[in-house]
Amino acid sequence: MGRPKGEGNRSKARPSSSSLAASLLPSSGAQAVGFGGYVGSSRVDSSSSSDDPAPFLDIDGEVAQHLKRLARKDPTTKLKALASLSMLLKQKSGKEILPIIPQWAFEYKRLLLDYNREVRRATHDTMSLLVAAVGRDLAPQLKSLMGPWWFSQFDPSSDVSQAAKRSLQAAFPAQEKRLDALILCTTEVLMYLEENLNLTPQSMSDKATALDELQEMHQQVISSSLLAFATFLDVLVGLQVDKPSFDSIAAETKRTSRARATAIAFAEKLFSVHKYFLDFLKSPTPAIRSATYSVLRSFIKNIPHAFSEGNMKTLATEVLGSFQEKDPACHQAMWDMILLFSKRFPEGWTTINVQKAMLHKFWHFLRNGCFGSQQISYPALVPFLNAIPPKAVVGEKFIFEFFQNFWAGRNRSLSLNADRLAFFQACRDCFIWALQNASRYCDGELAVHSFRVTLVDKILLKLLWPNYLPLGSKGNEGVFSEQSRGSSKGSSQPFYEETLETLKIKYPMGYVQDLGRCITEILSCIYSLESDLLLAFCTAFQENCFEVFQKTEHIESSSEIIERVIKFLLLLGQHSVQKGEKWPLVNLVGPMLAKSFSLIQIIDSPDIVRLVTMAVSVFGPRKIIAEIFCSNRTLFSSPCDDINKELDMDQFLLLYNEIFIPWCLQGNVSSTSARLDLLLVLLENESFSEQWHSIITYATDPERFGAGPEGPDQNHILVFAILMEKARAELRKRKVGVDVYQQGSHPEHWHHKLLDSCVVSITYSFPSFTSPNARFIRAVLGGSTEDDKICLVSRNAKILVFKEICRNLVTFMMDSPFTWVRDSCSLLTADANGSMPRRHNVNVLNMAHFALEVLDGSFFCVKTIEDEDGLVPGTLAAVFLIDWEYSMAVVSENANEDEATRKILGRMDFYASLHDFRGKLSTQFFKNLSMNIRNNLRRILIESIRFAIFKEDKFYIGKERSVCCQWMLDVIRCLCESQNEEQELLDQFLSKSEFWPLWVLPDACTGERSAALKTGNISINASRSHIIVAVIEELISEIGIEKVVAGSVSSISPSSEEAAREPTGSPSCSRAWLAAEILCTWKWQGGGALSSFLPSLSVYGKNGHFSHQESLLDCIVSILLDGALVHGDCGKLSLNHVWPVSFDEMEYVEEPFLRAFASLLLSLFEDNIWEKDKAIFLFEMLVKKLFIGEAVNLNCLKVLPLIMSVLIRPLSFRSDESTQVVQHDSFNASQMQDIIKDWLQRAILFSPSDTWQMEEEMEYWFQLVISCYPLSAISSIQGLKPEREISPAERSLLLELFRKQRHRSGSSTAATKLPTVQMVLSKLMVVSVGYCWMEFDVEDWEFVVYQLRWWIESAVVMMEEVAENVNELISNTSSSNSESAVNKLEHVVSELNPSPMRIATNALAAFSIFCDVIVLQKEENTDNMNPSRAEKWDLIKDRILEGILRLFFSTGVAEAIAGSCCYEASFILAASRFDHCHFWELVASCVVRSSAYARDKAVKSVELWGLMKGPIRALYAILFSSKPLPALQFASYVILSSEPVLTSSIIREDTTKSLDGDTTGEQESYTPDLASEEDVHLREEISCILEKLPYEILEMDLVAQERVNIFLAWSLFLSHLLSFPSSSPMKERLVQHVQKHANPAILDCIFQHIPLELCLAHSLKKKDMELPSVLSDAAAAATRAITSNSLLFCVESLWPVGPEKMASFAGAVFGMMLCTLPAYVREWFSDIRDRSTSSAIESFTKVWCSPPLISNELSEIKKAGIADENFSVSVSKAANEVVATYTKDETGMDLVIRLPASYPLRPVDVDCPRSVGISEVKQRKWLLSMLSFVRNQNGALAEAIRIWKSNFDKEFEGVEECPICYSVIHTVNHSLPRLACKTCKHKFHSACLYKWFSTSHKSTCPLCQSPF
């Protein structure tokens, strides 16, 4: 009967494999897989043998698509598919994932063998997500997955293996579950691994895969499979199953046993099939060999019966012969295999020839340093030696050969510290093992002892010790017997042959130390094992040391040998302390020193003495002395005799005093330092005082001290100094971690009266200025660093020493070449300067060097005597002052060889030394001084700085002001802890003196920082005052005006830990007087009120953080106003213009207080610091001060016009009532108008101006009235307009005042009036015209015009006289005498009378208004205007403009003439214009507005003038002026680029002017010569820039004047080209000239201004993003220049020149060059080799230049009208194409011209899509001719098409083509073939023939070769 079917088919005790697997997996919410492996209608394939994927049934389409993508070859595709699957697995439920598991299992196996490790890692990540989602539902596929899963745990990539482990842990979180899963799937895992081991590279892929990839994949699979197999055996076969309970023990044991049996059987099968895996051992891949070692180790451990008698010999040979393995990565597995084999199968050694199969390879392995696996192999040596059966080797021979080969491999183990430590650890362990296991190879005690003695002798004494202490090869020959040496062929040379060169070998750091430690530990082991074995080493040690001591002077590198002995002693001492053993001292060190001490004293070598010192420090003073002098023991005593009998104290002191002190303190030789170290190290704690007393007594003994007439013995002093230095070091060492009562641990323990008296005696001895003396003093004082507080002498001795040091420094200062330094000596302490008389006949420099040398080593000792009045601040001040003297000497170096200069040079070395010393002192040191010392030091230093400023005769203000400022900063930084101290210091510095202040005094009566005006003569002290003001200005720039002037300090709120600092102050704390003083000083060297102080004060005023700034400004204004009113009659005020006063005009104000007051007000109002309310307050106050009772305050009246010119603007502003201060609410505009009307009425009452004879009160009233009517400039000063709105009544009064002057002036000429009267009248005229022109009648205008013309003509006459004088001067001066001409020119300029130009300035301003009025009246009264009246005014206007143009040309002619002499001459004339900037700006404005008629007359008048230079040269002189004035430059450009100058401004007059017709039309009579393009000659001013542009321009600054001039020249030239029609011959000739001669560097220069990197970056980004401003400006300018065909807009906006404006100008020039010179630009562009540069330029052109250019070209072609009955043209703007069709009779041809997107940088493309009746040759020829015309045409494309059509016409007319260019019309100059050969009669273009002759170097016909 069969088993029942269905659910009862299985026993309940034996679950199905799937259910068991499911129990191992974690539960999941997904639907479980049912029995039979079915889920719904889909079969789950669980067979591990099937390689075909399950069909995609019930699988989501997206998932299926990604699964299919996993089969692709591209790793990127696989990675993306896996990433997508991972996302889907996170989003889907377990139920939705179940259907994909079979297909995933198939892909999973394949992906694990993928070459790309990222694919393998991503596969495991996806697997982790899948098992987490499905949980136990993975069970049906577990067996098919477990083999690959287990295999992947051993992937060679750590990232992949870790990911595989994470995925397995995700499926089986508990370790027990993972073990159960392995047991369950044992067969499947082993079968999968077997399949992998059977793979070949060819069978791994069915696709075309690279062979190297296949081989690498195969190697990875084999190595991973072997590792997986070995680990599987370790886990399963070697498993010790825990038995948790008796319930499950039967089932668990049975299942595990079955799995183990299966594994063993499978393993045995594989072991047999794969021939013991020995083939894998021969693999070239290290990973496979390492894995094979692991497999064999696993077999030895888990399946030992696999090693049988039949295979033992084979396996033993391979296993023990594995030492041939050279890859370090395999050595760990190799050693595990070998050690386990030797332990399990010792009999295996007997089956092989050990010497041949193992030892030879083992020796090679050791000699090569284990092939780099030192840290793995060396620790395995002792277990290996222990595992070798004794009978398998010859004992003694084996051990010695082992050490020989082991030692030979040491050099390969020295590079890494860990390798070196492993080597010496193994050396020690192997040596100790050999000693301890001697009985393995020897029988009997005698044989064992003999073996040990031999081992010590040959290995320790002749191998290790000579390598540590190499003394030559003597006695080393017999290390190994001939038999032992000969038994190992190929072994390294004996070690003793290497010892001779050992010292020369550069061992790594730590090698000798590690070797010594190894020897020490070996010695300790020997002593504990058998103490007698040490006898040989101790004897050798003594003999070696004695030999070294004897031959110290003769042995090379003896110091290094002794250093090694010292290090060995240290190691012995450390070992002795750690182990508590006495043998190092008793048996080694003690006997060695006892034997050698007398020799040590005789030789007196520093190295040997240092060895003794080290022995004392290691073993103790009394023990060492006892060993040296009292030891009578034999070398090796019994343990009970090893107890040392120490000396008693008296014996010890006696030996110390009588032997060691005299020996150690004898003369200064090379060993002195080492002997002194020994002397101090012998100090015992118990007897410290007695020993130190003995040392000092001996050292200060007069007989040895040398107290003779020549002073102390310097040799002995030097020894004493070294002793003190070492005593300090000993004290510091004793202070660390000792009991406070230990002797020698405190400085007081080292004090001694004899030492005090000695240091004082040396300090005061004469002459004491020697280095040993200074060194001794430094040593006893200490204080070389801030932490060094050790002083070996008493306080009184210190004070006496520093008094002498201070006196020496003061003596040096009194000998200074600087007065201020000598005067500062009186400020120093009386103790330093007056307690002792100054020494005479001493070397001051030597004395100063001595003092500095002492200070340098003991400076910080001064803090211990701070309470000594005067001494500390005096000493510190001397250091500061000498250092400052050095800085003064550096900047005051004088070329004169006077006595002071020689003295400075002689003191420079000491200066530099003290400066270096001062640099070592930290700021914190000074701040840690007591308050009293800091106050005294500040007082001395500040007074010294004032001495330097006020008393020094050698003060050079240019540099010394910075020096003094740095001194002040030095004092503030070092000596001021708080801001209050800073303010006290500044008060002291700014206090009153004989020379300071000059204008305003701080009021000392009130105790506050208020001010009072200074009276008296101030001119005497002006220079000193300017110096201190310069210093103060420098100080303000460093620490801020708020500290120096405002007196601000920071208040710290105590309530908050963060303590926010807010600058505070009050009027009483501020120094308003100082600000007033600086403003009154006005100018000083290196600065001035306008350039530096006012801007700083303005910034301070704008800053809202200072609460008292308003009161400070009020105080300054109040002081200055009072001063201006007091000194109002001292200076003459003259305001020359009527527009708002500027800072430049303040220079003309003579009175200091008024100038300062007006400048400050102007700054406050212009910077909007003060507003209208302040202006009203000041206006009301000044109005009140104008009258004293009924009398006029003349001082106030004199200063009021200037002040009103500043106040009138803010007074005229309208402001909201809410912003007005309450006290001014009552003030309104009508009140101000009433006051001004009152002033007007007073002025009207005065007599007319022509009656004035001298400066009277009436002039000031007129000035005051005029100042109330400001005119503001429009567009610089090209136009003027009223700033105030005045009432009709006020206007009526002003007009009345004007007419009163007019009526009186009509009876007298302007020439008879005083200059002052003319100036007042000119200003009144400008104001009246500006404010009352609407009320003017004809008489008023006639008077104005008359006066204007007269005043302007006066200036014209003066400037023409200047031009004539310059012309005469230069014409009479030779080129070699230019310096004389320059001097005369300076005289001519200085003699100019400024009055006519100042008056003419007002006249020009009035004329500007007059011109505007004429224009306005014409516009308003077009119908009612009287023509004759209009013509009258126009005629007058042109005449005045003609005079102004003469002015303009006069200054240009003068500069041009001067420039022909030298640059300096032209610069003088150009610079003189800046004295009258307003005048020349108005002239330029009028020139620009002048008519063509006026310009023509002016040009002709200059030509008729007959000077050296004409009008064109004059214009270029102004345009390219050496010191250009922008307004004049622009005017010159306008004149040059317009008629009547335009035609002659570019081309020289001798240039051919006959080319005005069309060479291709009817005018065929013109026959150009061979080189007709050479007929064009540019003017020199233009050609030198266009043709001779230096490449150095590319290195100049972007806003350099040279660059501006270049752009202006090119702009002129391009504008000139634009003035020609497109078909003009002259334009063509100019274009050809540029192409041939112009330097293309201009284009490189252009793109230095246009940021190419921004162009490229913008082209790569979105087009709608915002452009950078510089690029945007350049692009807009280029586009505008192309569309407007003009550059004038860019030139007009060029000034003031800046990077942005230059970029805009460059863009405009580039755009215009693309319009006019496209071929020239294209040729330059094609030569660019930098791809990024060309891309950026093309991008810029394509985006901003090409679109408008293409649009213009296409529009021009449409409008050209070229078409006729034979020719038609069609334009496609969308495609940027032109189609030209030519038909003639039965022939025809279509040409398509395509414009590229970056036209014209890229050439146009010409194509012939259709032709009829034309041969291919002719078609090609015509196509090429069209291409030539288009590409060579620098004008419009329309012109190129027209010329090409004409070429066709001529050819059809029968005109022969040129045989050279194959064209009828020349492609460049458009000429016809004219020159005919007399032989062959062919005609050629002249240009073609010229080129043929030039290039062929012969003059024969190109066709017939006959002479032409």
Layout: helices, strands, pairs:
Elements (H helix, E strand, L loop, with lengths): L16 H8 L13 E2 L2 E2 L17 H9 L5 H17 L2 H4 L3 H11 L5 H18 L7 H11 L5 H14 L3 H10 L1 H12 L13 H26 L12 H25 L4 H4 L4 H17 L6 H12 L10 H14 L9 H14 L6 H4 L3 H7 L7 H14 L8 H20 L8 H24 L13 H5 L24 H19 L4 H17 L7 H22 L3 H21 L2 H14 L1 H9 L19 H16 L7 H10 L6 H12 L2 H4 L8 H22 L17 H12 L6 H11 L13 H20 L4 H6 L5 H4 L10 H15 L12 H21 L7 H21 L3 H5 L3 H20 L6 H19 L3 H11 L10 E4 L6 E4 L8 H18 L1 H4 L4 E4 L8 E4 L7 H10 L1 E2 L2 E2 H14 L6 H18 L25 H15 L5 H14 L1 E2 L2 E2 L1 H19 L16 H17 L11 H11 L3 E4 L4 E4 L5 H18 L9 H18 L5 H34 L6 H13 L3 H27 L6 H33 L3 H10 L4 H12 L3 H14 L5 H9 L6 H11 L5 H4 ...
Antiparallel strand pairs: 1-2, 3-4, 5-6, 7-8, 9-10, 11-12, 13-14, 14-15, 15-16, 17-18
Describe the 3D structure.
The N terminus is likely disordered. The strands form 8 sheets. The protein has a 4-stranded antiparallel sheet with strand order 13-14-15-16, with helices on one face. A two-stranded antiparallel sheet has the order 1-2. The longest helix is centred in the C-terminal third of the chain and has 34 residues, at 1338-1371. The protein starts with 16 loop residues before the first helix and ends in a 12-residue tail after the last helix. Strand 13 and strand 14 (1777-1784) form a beta hairpin. By secondary structure, the chain is mainly α. It is flat, with a radius of gyration of 55 Å. It contains 81 helices and 18 strands. Helix 10 packs parallel to helix 12, helix 55 packs antiparallel against helix 56 (1257-1267) and helix 60 packs parallel to helix 63 (1463-1472).
